[in-house]
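Continuing from the previous page...

OK, I double-checked the sequence for Dihydrolipoyl dehydrogenase against my notes and this is the correct one:
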Amino acid sequence: MADKFDVIVIGAGPGGYVAAIRAAQLGLKTACVEKWTNKEGKVVHGGTCLNVGCIPSKALLETSHKFVEARDHYDEIGIEVGDLSPNIAKMLEFKEKVIAKNVGGISALFKANGVTALDGTGKVLSSKQVEVNNGGDKTVYEADNIVIATGSVPVEIPPTPLTDDLVVDSSGALEFTEAPKRLGVIGAGVIGLELGSVWNRLGSEVTMLEAMDTFLPAVDTAIAKETQKLLKKQGLDIKLGARVTGSEVKGKEVVVKYTDAKGEQEQTFDKLIVCVGRRPYTQGVLGEDAGVKLDERGFIFVDDQCRTSVPGVYAIGDCVRGQMLAHKASEEGVMVADIIAGHKAEMNYDAIPCVIYTAPEVAWVGMNEQEAKAAGIEVKTGSFPFSANGRALANNAPDGMAKVIADAETDRILGVHIVSQHAGELIAQGVIAMEFGSSAEDLALTCYAHPSTSEAVHEAALAVGGHAIHMANRKKR
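Thanks. Re-ran it with the corrected sequence; updated structure tokens here:
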């Protein structure tokens, strides 16, 4: 029998590596198992998020946005740059550098905090044992506690099987060496919109096929409508109610068949990205005698504090219920490590922010207005356009709006929804407000820096009570 640990974490993504570091900081002997290898065959940490997800996609989103901004909008503010063209090879090189810095940083943090990195695949056995398989060399470790953080993988659908460099998932879409002339994207959710935006900016004609009839149903209707209008203006052709029924590869093209309100349709693309969601990754993670139960959707069953059906075994992140978000996984990792160390810890699942990193960004936390009304809650809302915000105008970024949703009886904030430049940063004030149970009046009475785009949230909070300063036709006190 090999070494025994207080905690063994399986998976070194945003949930796993954070859980391991936190546990080590609390004085627990901790190991973290990871099987992900880079292009050189070396085991690296960070999981999907750092290697083929959040981080590399944001690198391409930022570089492609800067290109479009310089090409189409610099002259509006008095900067003449002449003809511009994107160098996709250099953009991909930049993306790889960003990935390397991030994964290297995690390895350094493991060493600094005394986390033992175990290379290979991890499997939970009975009696809280973990088998680590490193290229066929198997070692069994004992642990007082186990944290499963194995994440998720893209969902594949029968009508569009992945085909080399032609029909790809979200990971493959980050490796295109040139912008395809005609790009199809199945799914107009967070990942689809981000990847579609990248290649649209770099020259692709992008068509998005979304099976649902509603655009971004998790987002407040007013914000979603504004977002759809802005993305359409940028050139994204978003077809709602388009259900893909089949595809056929013809040479270097793929013909996609789908049905919509008009009946059977067909469209030909040079590349096709399948972004229809993700599923929990638990393949080979649980031994037959592990005792850990899965729910009806294949997620590891856990309670509100991420305990599985086996005492001392926890599961966090994408492989358990809830939103598949890196920051949600990280916070669950901290909570579990604290519980293992004997501290009282819990997580507020009602105050987890979501962000779509398009331009402008879309961000929200809490309920949208339609959800609140469906739950029988009487609400009052306040909205404010960024076209009336001084800093947004100075930034030449007047698109978007902020909306605050509050309980009509108590004034407690139920949700905040924003579409704007840097909405992913602005939403933090909504998260903090909800975490502390703030009312809309609390935000309205807060002094905001001027000029700042965050003032739009301030005005939206004021508008809940009918007292926005920089909007006409509001109620008088």
